[in-house]
Amino acid sequence: MGFVRPGLDAGKADLGLIHPNSQETPMESQHTMAPLRVSIEEAAFSLRISRALLYQRIAAGHIAAHHDGRRAFIAMAELRRYVAQQAGVTA
Predict the structure, then answer these.
(1) What is the pTM of this model?
(2) How confident is the prediction along the chain (91 residues), in pLDDT tens digits per residue?
(3) Is residue 28 part of a domain?
(4) Dihedral pair phi/psi, residue 42, rounded to 5°
(5) Is 67 exposed, middle or buried (0-12, 13-18, 19+ CB in 10 A)?
(6) Residue 53: which domain range?
(7) Across-strand partners of 46?
(8) Under 8 Å CB-to-CB from 33, ≥6 apart: which residues?
(9) Structural contact between residues 17 and 10, judged by C-beta atoms closer than 8 angstroms
(10) In a domain, 16, yes or no
(11) Dist. CA 22–CA 37, nearest whole Å
(12) Where are the alpha helices (DSSP H) in the chain?
């Protein structure tokens, strides 16, 4: 199953980051902001690839990640750029 945690930002639903079985209500989505960055696990889930493959893409320089302390994050803009590039669309 997915990595869904209680209280996950409803804005992630548009980005494919909320598992279909999420218990989130429409009222919650009206008062949250879409994330500017996501964790490695969330990015992998959103891209529908494994964490290992995502780490390979990061190491190869295809996706840029940044660290905040010990945790790695990927900006949503970077995920959108990567997906557009893979689809052959210029960002």
Answers:
(1) 0.63
(2) 444 444 444 445 545 555 555 565 555 555 688 899 999 999 999 999 999 999 999 999 999 999 999 999 999 999 999 999 999 976 5
(3) no
(4) -65, -40
(5) exposed
(6) 38-91
(7) none
(8) 9, 11
(9) no
(10) no
(11) 20
(12) 26-29, 40-47, 51-59, 76-86
